[in-house]
Write a structure and sequence with these properties.
Elements: H1 12-17, E1 27-30, H2 41-53, E2 58-61, E3 65-66, E4 69-70, H3 76-86, E5 90-94, E6 96-97, H4 101-105, H5 110-138, E7 145-147, E8 152-153, H6 160-176, E9 181-186, H7 193-205, E10 209-213, H8 223-232, E11 238-242, E12 244-246, E13 256-258, E14 270-273
Parallel strand pairs: 1-2, 1-14, 2-5, 3-6, 5-7, 7-9, 8-9, 9-10, 10-11, 11-14
Antiparallel strand pairs: 3-4, 12-13
Helix pairs in contact: 2-3, 5-6, 7-8
Length: 288
């Protein structure tokens, strides 16, 4: 996802205000943090039970590596995902994320380096998938898909040539993975709603599962513009509804509080971002 969320501590009041009703989504995003390793098996089991009772069927784990951090190394994430599988959640596992992704791609001269940088990101994710597979097979954990934790921002891909080249790179990566590849996109207003829908649809039609973030939590674009982008998308594109509201100022360390996501969008796959903001996941919000 486009920002590393979950650094803030949710207050008891905020948790009580967050809605516990069904949200009409099939998929739930989760961003692992190393501090989550303190949760017990029982706490994980309760979190996943509640997630299933709220109607979630699939879990997208944002990443399994974050820079030099490898969350599988001491087993806590694999243990948590084993509990999720036992509670009936399908697993889409994120691969390797670069913590400096947004700083890197928007540095001076980024346009000339983007293709090689994207190729490097995808090699890192492929290597991570190869490290994970034996561990997942040992636990008999089925993988429904893989997630590439590098957002397709229209700020980066407003040029047709870059879009075409990136599409080719993504399809090459998907061919080397043994499960469907999931990707996410975010709109900054650099493409028109129609052009954005055409670009994302070309990826979806090529066999990728595309998720578009609704931007409600960040609120960078005015509501009518966000709605226009959403309404232009064809039905197969998934909608990720943000369940938070940003409280930090631009340029400051990110902070947010829980907020009710927008209603489910008919005809689209629906997801909610992310687990840490939901009331039944309160143990994830405790200080380390």
């Amino acid at each position: 996802m486009h920002r590393r969320l979950g650094q803030q501590v949710l207050t008891i009041v905020a948790v009580l205000l967050a809605s516990g009703t069904r949200v009409g989504a099939e998929t739930l995003f989760y961003q692992p943090l190393n501090r989550d390793q303190g949760l017990s098996v029982e706490e994980w089991s309760q979190i996943w039970q509640r997630s299933r009772s709220q109607g979630y069927e699939s879990l997208i784990v944002q990443w399994s590596a974050f820079g030099d951090e490898r969350f599988e190394q001491n087993d806590w994430l694999l243990n948590a995902l084993t509990e999720a599988h036992q509670q009936g959640l399908k697993l889409v596992i994120g691969l390797a994320a670069d913590p400096t992704y947004f700083q890197t791609v928007l540095q001076p001269g980024w346009k000339d380096r983007l293709s090689s940088y994207w190729a490097a990101l995808q090699r890192q994710s492929l290597n991570q998938q190869q490290r994970l597979m034996p561990l997942l097979e040992q636990r008999q954990l089925p993988v429904a898909g893989w997630y590439l934790p590098a957002e397709l921002s229209d700020r980066l891909f407003n040029d047709p040539g870059r879009r075409d080249n990136t599409r080719k790179q993504l399809l090459e990566l998907a061919e080397r993975l043994n499960r469907p590849l999931h990707i996410s996109a975010y709109s900054h207003g650099q493409l028109s709603p129609r052009a954005n829908a055409t670009w994302l649809s070309s990826l979806q039609q090529a066999g990728l599962q595309v998720w578009w973030q609704d931007g409600e939590g960040i609120a960078e674009l005015p509501p009518p513009i966000r709605t226009a982008y959403r309404d232009a998308l064809p039905c197969p594109i998934g909608i990720v509804r943000e369940a938070f509201r940003q409280t930090s100022a631009p340029g400051a360390p990110f902070s947010a509080v829980p907020a009710s996501p927008q209603p489910a969008v008919p005809c689209h796959p629906n997801a909610v971002f992310e687990l840490r903001y939901l009331p039944w996941a309160a143990p994830l919000s405790q200080p380390p």
